[in-house]
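Obj: model holo form, ligand = tetrahydrodeoxyuridine.
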Amino acid sequence: MFNLTQTQQQDLLTAARLARAQAYAPYSGYRVGAAVLDDQGRIHAGCNVENAAYPEGLCAEAAALAAMVLAGTTRAHAVLVVGSGDETGAGWTTPCGGCRQKLREFGSPDLVIISANGAAIGPSFTLAQLLPDSFGPDHLPPRLPD
Ligand code: THU
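Output (holo structure tokens):
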């Protein structure tokens, strides 16, 4: 498992909490922020962005991954997710199934996933724990570059 320093964990928490404050969640009221640590030690944040056409909503993790790709990196080491569990009593937020697969695209099965909320840091997982026997880019045959 990729080992995070205390500083990296704290920086991820700060970035994800700031991102969560920007969440657009008028339909669920469930605000989420996510922060990804890339292979260069940089942090990319995202928030959930809902839509009146409900299925078109975007998860915070997907937004953070898009920010990482925009910044020119396609390898993630860790992601920290700040949900609304402390407000709703619903427990820790872990990435939805779709986001677990999105994380798989840019991270190894060792990718660290940390749950947090407005009050505390919660449990950590590896992607392999949350998405066992996963399918990723390494399963596909090599393609000619674009
Ligand atoms: N959501 C996220 O952004 N990330 C998660 O890990 C779980 C769920 C969002 C989707 C939707 O906008 C709201 O939270 C309620 O499901």
